[in-house]
Write a structure and sequence with these properties.
Blueprint: H1 13-64, E1 68-73, E2 78-83, E3 86-92, H2 93-97, E4 100-103, E5 107-110, E6 116-117, E7 122-128, E8 131-137
Length: 144
C-alpha cells in the first residue's frame, strides 16, 4: 500500500525573493511620491506664511498710521515685519519648512494709507526640491 504524497506547506526561496522584490519596488515608488508631496506642501506652507506676513504688514501700517516694512533675508530664508524701531514678526521659514527663498527685492514698505511705498513690483519664491511657490506683490501693495 502506497501513502499519498503531501504537498509542501512552506514557500520556496524563489517565491520569497519575488515577493520581497515586488514589495521593495512598491515601497520605493511610495517613498518617492511622499517626498514630492512633502516638498509641495512645505513650499505652499511657506508661501502662505509670506502672504500672511505681507498682509499683516499692510494692516499694521494702516492701523498704526505709520510706514511699515517687510524685509526678507534670503540667506537665512527668514522674514521680518517692522514698524519704525519695533519688530512685530520674525519668521525663520528655512528652519520651519526647509525651503530656499529668493526675492526680487529685499524689502517692501507700506505707507500709512496701505499703499506700497516704492515704484517696483516684488516677487518672492519659496523652493523645496522640485516644488516652487511664487508670491507677487504689486507696486500698489496687493499680494497675489
Amino acid at each position: 500500500m502506497r501513502l499519498p504524497l503531501r504537498s509542501p506547506r512552506g514557500t520556496t526561496l524563489p517565491e520569497l525573493l519575488v515577493a520581497v522584490t515586488v514589495a521593495a519596488i512598491l515601497g520605493g515608488i511610495a517613498v518617492a511620491g511622499a517626498a514630492r508631496l512633502t516638498d509641495v506642501l512645505n513650499a505652499r506652507g511657506a508661501a502662505r506664511e509670506l502672504r500672511a506676513a505681507l498682509e499683516t504688514t499692510r494692516h499694521l501700517a494702516v492701523l498704526r498710521a505709520t510706514r511699515a516694512a517687510f524685509t526678507v533675508d534670503t540667506a537665512r530664508a527668514s522674514l521680518a515685519v517692522r514698524l519704525g524701531a519695533d519688530t512685530a514678526i520674525v519668521r525663520e521659514l528655512g528652519a520651519l519648512y526647509g525651503i530656499r527663498l529668493s526675492a526680487s527685492r529685499d524689502s517692501i514698505a507700506y505707507a500709512a494709507n496701505g499703499l506700497g511705498w516704492g515704484a517696483a513690483n516684488a516677487r518672492l519664491v519659496a523652493r523645496r526640491g522640485a516644488a516652487a511657490e511664487t508670491v507677487t506683490v504689486s507696486r500698489l501693495g496687493r499680494v497675489r
